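sry for the spam today, last one i promise. struct tokens for design, 249 residues
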């Protein structure tokens, strides 16, 4: 839509705070262009539009989680079987964290994440799931009380860190390792205030801890102090005590 037929083009035009005169006057108004259904739709796939979607995910996440009580993020494998000892440990962990006064935040998926959410829900605590858009659909598990699905991994990771006072990491795969090392890096570089990181399952994590000590630290790629950034345990009560002690609860 432009200037109606028979109406002279104005010599002066105000577009919000912008003043246009003479040859710089543009046809139509901002509302006209907003409401016009015709035109190319490729703009929804451009980087400026992606920036707006990223911004909206941050706004929605901050709004949904800002009033959470003290929380612990629990990471772990989506492939953990419901009839496994690891799943049962996740349920007991979620329950114990709620009893210690924490909300439980997970990735919202099945497996270890579902176990921690189940324990939190059964203990009548706040059970949070932060899902992610993936090529293979997972969805949020049924024990999530507050749930969000994110398009972007880095926005989701920010929520895990911003609204948690500590991490407990159950046995998991590449995604769990990604979250673990991101957390360790943030603490090591002091990008976040130090908070506890607990690896649950000594046998599972033994090889990783040995490699960090015997290869990474021994090779001068990290310091001995970096091995103090995390704790390893097989005991649910000890895991909860560690996060409680370091968070002052």
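last one done:
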């Amino acid at each position: 839509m432009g200037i109606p037929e028979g109406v002279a083009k104005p010599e002066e035009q105000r577009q919000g705070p912008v003043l246009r005169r003479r040859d710089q006057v543009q046809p139509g108004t901002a509302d006209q262009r907003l409401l016009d259904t015709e035109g190319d739709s490729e703009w929804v796939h451009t980087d400026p539009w992606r920036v707006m979607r990223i911004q909206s995910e941050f706004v929605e996440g901050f709004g949904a989680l800002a009033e959470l009580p003290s929380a612990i993020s629990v990471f772990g494998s989506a492939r953990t079987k419901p009839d496994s000892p690891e799943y049962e440990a996740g349920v007991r962990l979620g329950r114990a964290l709620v009893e210690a006064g924490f909300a439980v935040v997970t990735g919202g998926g099945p497996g270890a994440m579902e176990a921690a959410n189940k324990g939190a829900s059964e203990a009548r605590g706040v059970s949070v799931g932060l899902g992610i858009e993936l090529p293979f659909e997972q969805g949020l598990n049924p024990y999530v009380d507050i749930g969000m699905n994110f398009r972007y991994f880095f926005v989701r990771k920010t929520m895990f860190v911003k609204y948690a006072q500590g991490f407990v990491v159950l046995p998991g795969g590449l995604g769990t390792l990604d979250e673990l090392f991101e957390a360790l890096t943030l603490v090591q570089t002091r990008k976040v205030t130090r908070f506890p990181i607990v690896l649950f399952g000594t046998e599972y994590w033994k090889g990783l801890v040995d490699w960090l000590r015997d290869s990474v630290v021994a090779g001068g790629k990290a310091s001995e102090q970096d091995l103090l950034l995390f704790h390893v345990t097989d005991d649910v009560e000890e895991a909860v005590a560690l996060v409680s002690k370091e968070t002052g609860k």
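DSSP finds eight helices and nine strands in the chain. ok im logging off now
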